[in-house]
Amino acid sequence: MPVDPMLQPLVAGFAVEAQEVIQKVTMDLLELEREGLENDALAKIYTRLGRHLHTLKGSAASLGLQDLGDIAHKLEDALAPLKAHTQKMPRPVVDVLLHGLDLFMLRAQAHADGRGDYLPDPAAALAQLVAAAPPPEESAVLPGGGFAQVPPDAVSAPSAAVSAPVSAPFNPFAEAPAAPEPAGESSDAGWRVSANQVTSLMREVERLREVRLRVEERSRELERVSALLAKQGLLAETAEARTLLSGTGRSLRTDGEETSDVVDALEDGLKAITTRPTRTILDPLQRMVRDLSRQLGKEARLSVVGAEVSLDRRLLEKLQGALVHILRNAVDHGLEMPAEREKAGKHHEGALTLRVEQQGNLLYLEASDDGRGIDLNQVRKAAEKRGLVTAEEAARLNDNQVRDLIFSAGFSTRSDVTDTSGRGVGLDAVRDTVEGLQGRIEVSSTRGQGTRFVLTLPVDLGSSPVLMVRALEQFVGLPMLAVESTQLARPDMLRVGKRRTHLEYQGQLMPVVDLGARLGLRASSPPAEGQPLLIVQSGGKRVALGVDAVVGDRDLVIRPLPSEVREVAAWQGAATLSRGELLLILRPDWVVSDSEKGTVSAVSRRALVVDDSLTARALHRAMLEAGGFQVHLAASGARALERLQADTYDVVICDLDMEEMDGIELIARLRERKDTRTLPVILVSAHDSAVARERGLASGADGFLSKRECAAGRLLAEVLDVMSRRGSRA
Amino acid sequence: MKGTPRVVDEALEDETRELLARRAARLREQGESNVEEAVHWIAEFPLGEERYALPLESLRAALPLRMVTPVPLSAPAVIGVLRFQGQVLSALSLASLLGGHGWRQDPAVLLVVDRGDGELCALDCEAIPRPTTLPLASVEAARARAEGPVVEVFTQDRQLIHLIDPRRLFARSDAGVRHAR
Q1: Residues A591 and A467 sit within 8 Å (Cβ to Cβ)
Q2: CB distance A568–B176 less than 8 Å?
Q3: Is some CB atom of chain A closer than 8 A to the CB atom of B176?
Q4: Which residues of B touch A211 (CB under 8 A)?
Q5: What is the pLDDT of residues A471-502, one digit of tens each?
Q6: Which residues belong to any copy of the Response regulatory domain (chain A) (predicted)?
Q7: Does B67 sit within 8 Å of A707, measured CB to CB?
Q8: Helix A39-62 crosses helix A66-84 at what angle (to 10 degrees)?
Q9: What is the predicted pLDDT for the residue at A661?
């Protein structure tokens, strides 16, 4: 059926629009076949459905697409008797309508691609549609979704629906037109740009954001200069200079604000080009779940949380296949048959949940079901049978390792190959996809209660709000989305136990975690009165995080960490601050995870390393930790004194030559204090001379080592020797 | 009679032959010295009392050791992270990666190097390295003999250089997680 050449450019736009409308109709149909909807709600959905179908018919007819108009008309006919008696839609009718929508969309796409001339006569398809539809009176009285004969292709249609291109919301920056374009404007009036071009543009925007931070910093510096000059009375005599300085300060602030606006606008524009809501890949999954469960004689309902989160289009495209695999597995292997579920005390309809959450530059995608859970014995046997592990290896595996076998290439618990499974291709491909995106996938399962997959993926796009806090000298950031509230510690709110402290918050007790201790910077202690506590939540868990100071919130671009530190569970990335220094960003899921689990048994010996060289601190720490010490670090003598006031140590390793306060002065200060008078101190120095050694030992040090000797591995022996000598003297 | 001039000619001929022979020898000598020995460019720096080097082509920059953010809970060799040309890089202790080496002074320089897998990282060292060369044949022979990340090569003036192979160094390094608390 040829389309008028004048109208052809509009047909492409129509196909995109039709895709959106059909998606809405699909969601409404799935809603209508569910139980428990009030009559008012049902009536509203029927009305909306009728309007949508009418829109499709009208739009098709206006473009001369008669075949599409006829299909839409038949669908309206099928709907009419049900609208008259508002009730739950019988499944056979839903099947027919969904099948009709597939037919409509496939033909609309063919017209848009200029293949309309080669389409088969729609009469046969329409006849099949009419034949498959139950008679109006039957449709109107079918009780509670009884099963009727469904044309086979009505069930096999979802793959076409899922793989069909999904439209984006209207967006002036987008490549594809979101709505029919005005006549005379060709569909290629936009620009086609490569992903690399957009990525490099994003990098420039990020640089501009850093420039803006620097401008803010310069402005603050200028204010400090003005304040300093005013304090010393230098500005009083030069009114002109004072006016000039304050004028420059104001201009700088205004420029900073304008830059900020420009950066925000650029970033929003880029986000609009490069992202789309997650629902564009999640909504079609509803249909897939529905059709697959029908095919297998099961009942399932998919709930989606967080579908509004917008993500990089490329990421979404890659994730779509992974989610399809996981959900198909959940329906096929996870969910039981309705009768079996009822026997087990569950609702006959299985519940599948997809939850999407973005925290900073991490995306959490959780897919769970309330089915039978993973049978570990069956997994063991299947892995053995398929030669993935030997019987001896399988016997040695713990439960987590057995669960991980389901991600092995070639693994399947099915002994026969069906349409949905048994080929051993699936979860290994999912894991490959996730790992290809530098993410990770974890599975947890409880027998009889269900299975949960959690995909954690880095997302690298634009800035996100971060709360900057401090623990000792370490500044760190927390994604603002994970911070529920901030409060100051009060003794009456705290329940201090032998091992843990809890905070009474909103009628509940939640564990208090000291950030400094969690990061290994100091020993854990209950929060002091007035210490800031952040209520951090992630994945349904909450803790009160004790920090030394809340610095403030920032809008920061979080970059992924390099490979050498990527596996450190505490960190999700790093962001650049105004002076070019990096701020590490904490992973909220690590913050709320049980810190007790990872704690090594009580450490009896504690060492404090004081050195202004980052390298020396790192090296000494490594050597002492290897010897079983718990090591805390201080970058100066003053910091060391602070640490020694708050914590107790068994030994101090101190650099001889430090700026401000050298090792000798620190020893003198320690010997003045009663509690540290006998504390063993070992001086280390880059200068390996007899003079330095004599000077160090004369100052009261218990030992002296050159850094060359330390690097050669003598530090631990010297520390143990000095501690033993001190101990025997005591 | 007719013999004298011939003798003179012969004498001249001998002189000419000798002159030409000398010239040829000089040219041969010159030619041989003009054949440049193939060399391997390196960035040489001190590590304690010893001389170490990295292939010059792997060196991207030398920076002062500052603006490095420590990473709590990271592996012992990790000093911290820093920003370099818009990227986040790890700063690693070379002495620690090499298993504990001499220490003449606290490291003050970071060398940004290509790890050999396309990623960059920064290694600390005591002084700014100087570019120099090693005989290529010696480097290749040393590499063929050794399997580790450091090979010992002698310079033309018989000084020992420990030449680091970044690809081998990072392939075996265990920089990563220290422990989680």
Answers
A1: no
A2: yes
A3: yes
A4: none
A5: 998 999 998 888 989 999 999 989 988 788 99
A6: 606-722
A7: no
A8: 160
A9: 87
For a pLDDT cut of 90, what percent of chain B falls above it? Answer: 31
DSSP A519: T
In chain B, residues with a C-beta closer than 8 Å to the C-beta of A581 are 67, 69, 83
Domain extent listing, chain B: 1-35, 39-172
The CATH T-level fold of domain B39-172 is OB fold (Dihydrolipoamide Acetyltransferase, E2P) (2.40.50)
* Stronger pLDDT, A370 or B3, i.e. the higher one: A370
The torsion region of residue A143 among left (phi > 0), alpha (psi -120 to 50) and beta comes to: beta
Instruction: Output the six-digit token pair for A190.
Output: 């936009």
Contact predicate A308/A278, CB 8 Å: yes
Residues of chain A with pLDDT under 50: 136-187, 417, 419, 422-425, 597-602, 730
Q: Give long-range contacts, CB 8 A cutoff, 24+ apart: A8-12.
A: A8/A114, A9/A181, A9/A183, A9/A185, A9/A186, A9/A187, A10/A63, A10/A180, A10/A181, A10/A183, A11/A63, A11/A65, A11/A108, A11/A111, A11/A112, A12/A112, A12/A177, A12/A187
Contact A86, A42 (CB under 8 A): yes
pLDDT of residue B72: 92
The full DSSP string for B55-100 is: EGGGEEEEEES-SPBP-TTB-TTEEEEEEETTEEEEEE-HHHHTTS
Measured between alpha carbons, how far is A674 from A695 in angstroms, rounded to an integer? Answer: 23
pTM metric for this prediction: 0.63
ipTM of the prediction: 0.76
Q: What is the pLDDT of residue A688?
A: 75
Q: What is the distance in angstroms between the Cα of B92 and the nearest Cα belonging to chain A? A: 8
Write down the pLDDT at residue A1: 54
Per-residue pLDDT, A129? 67
**Nearest CB partner across the interface for B81, out of A206, A474, A565:** A565
Cα A235 to chain centroid distance, Å, stands at 52
What pLDDT digit, counting tens, does each position of A283-320 carry? 888 888 888 898 899 999 999 998 888 888 878 888 88
Residue of B93, B94, B103 to mutate when probing chain A, most A C-beta within 10 A? B103
Put simply, the answer to whether A686 touches B90 (Cβ < 8 Å) is no
Question: Which pLDDT does position B173 carry in this prediction?
Answer: 58
Q: Does A684 touch chain B (CB under 8 A)?
A: no
What pLDDT, on a 0 to 100 scale, did the predictor assign at position A418?
52
B31: closest CA of chain A, how far (Å): 49
In this complex, which of B69, B79, B88 lies closest to A618 when CB atoms are compared?
A: B79
Which residues are B83's β-sheet partners?
A: B88
How much is the pLDDT for A600? 42
Place of tokens 């304690």: B48
Q: Which residue of A has its CA nearest to B84?
A: A580
Contact A574 B69 (CB under 8 A): yes
d(CA A119, CA A204): 48
pLDDT in tens, B77-105: 899 999 887 789 999 988 888 876 667 77
What is the spatial distance between Cα A122 and Cα A128, in angstroms, rounded to a whole number? 10
d(CA A403, CA A443): 7
Residue A37 in tokens? 């909807």
To the nearest whole angstrom, how far is the Cα of A259 from the nearest Cα of chain B? 19
pLDDT at A234: 63
Indicate the burial class of A244 (C-beta count within 10 angstroms; 0-12, 13-18, 19 or more).
exposed
Buried b (16+ CB within 10 A) or exposed e, A499-519: eebbbebeeeebbbbbbbbbb
Angle at A516 between CA A514 and CA A517, to 5 degrees: 65
DSSP string, B127-171: S--EEEEEEHHHHHHHHHH--SSEEEEE-TT--EEEEE-HHHHHH
Nearest to A622 by CA among B169, B74, B91, B106: B74
Report d(CA B22, CA A270) in Å as an integer.
77
Give the whole-angstrom CA distance, residue A48 versus residue A145: 21
CB contact under 8 A, B78 and A707: no
